Amino acid sequence: MTREAVVTGIGVVAPGATDTAGFWEMLTAGRTATRGITLFDPTGFRSRIAAEVDFDPTAHGLDPHEVERMDRYAQFAAVATAEALADSGLRPADLPPWRLGVSMGTAVGATTRLDREYATMSRGGADWVVDHRAAGPHLERALSPSTLSGEIAERVGARGPVRTVSTGCTSGLDAVGYAAQAIEDDLADVVVAGAAESPISPIAMACFDAIRATSDTNDDPGHASRPFDRHRNGFVMGEGAAILILEEASAARRRGARARCRVAGFANHGNAFHMTGLRREGTEMARAITTALDQARLPATAVDYVNAHGSGTVQNDRHETDAVKRALGEHARRTPMTSIKSMVGHSLGAIGSIELAACVLAMDTGVVPPTANLTSPDPECDLDYVPLTARERRVDVVLSVGSGFGGFQSAVVLDRGSEVRS
Q1: pTM here?
Q2: Distance (Å, whole) CA 293 – CA 304
C-alpha cells in the first residue's frame, strides 16, 4: 500500500501575529509587520529595520526554567508546536513513541544567545581572548543547531527519526519534505515538522550589511520589503516559526482527523555555482519544481498558486521568475505567484515552513495572499504577483519554492490528495 503524508495541524509564531488565525488575517489584509529594530540598538548599522515578533514566552505558557534554557528561536518552535498539536487533535502521550518523529529546520540556530554570550565573555568585543567563566550555563546548547530538534522531541516524547535540517534559507521547506519522506518510507506515522529562526541580532545584521543584501529603507520600514518591484533594494530580516503536523493518511482517516492537504512532492537541487550568486536562467530551481510535480503525479497545468521565495533582491526575483516560467511553461502566466516576505520579512531558515503554513491556509480558505508594496513592477518580472490585494481563488494544488545561500533550490507541492487526482 502506498503511504502518503497529510497535514493535520498548523502552528505559527510570526511577525505581526503569534498564532495561526492572526497570521492569516494579517496576510490576507495585506498588512506589513516590518519596522525599526527594537531587539537591540541598531545605531550605526546600514539596515536598521526588521520584521520582529512581539513575543512574551511566559504569556505563551513557558515556565522560567524553559525561558532560561531555550534560545528565542526554540521558544518560538515550542509555542508553535503546542498550537499545531492542538489543531491536529493529537495527544503525543497516546502515540507509539517509536513511530513519532521530529524534523526541524534552522539556518543560523541560536544566534541570539551566541551573540549575547560572546558580548558578555569579550566585554562587548573589547577582549580578543574571551573569559569563559562569564558564560551562561546553557551556552553549550546554543552551539549546536541539533538542540532545536532535541528540544521538540523531548517535549513530545518522540523516539522515532529526529533530525535537524540546516540548508540555509530552504531549511523550512526541506524539513517538511524530509518529514513527508519519513512517513512515505514507513519510518514514522506522525512527524512534527517545521522550522524556527531568531536572527535579528547584531552579528547577523552585520553579516548581511557587509554584503548589502538587506534593505536600507530605514525611513519607511513598512514599505521596505518590495519583492518584484523595480524600486526594491534588498530583503528585510525576519524571525519566527511554523510547525506542521504530518500524519500517514490512512491513520489520519481512521481517527477521523481533518487532512488539510497532502505533501505530494518534494525536491531539492544544488546549483554548484556560487555561495550567494544565482544563474539567471534558474535551471536548478526549475528542475526541483519539475521533480516535485513528477513525484506528485501532477502536470504543470495543475498548479493553482505559486508561493514564491520572493526575497526582494534583483538577483533572486528575476532568477525565480525565469525558473517558474521554465518549469510551468505558458501556464506560469495564468498562475498567481506571491511573496509573503513582503509582509513578514525573510526569516532565513524558518521562512519556508511559514510559507507552507500560508499555502495550506490558502487551500483552506480559497484566498491567495497578496504581494505587498508592489506598486512599480520590474519589467523583467512579468508574471501575476497579485499586487497589494488578496484574491479569491480555488486552490487545489500549491507549489512553494525556495532558494538558499550555498546554491540550494527546493520545491514542495501540496494538494488535496485523491480528490484532485480522481
Answers
A1: 0.96
A2: 13
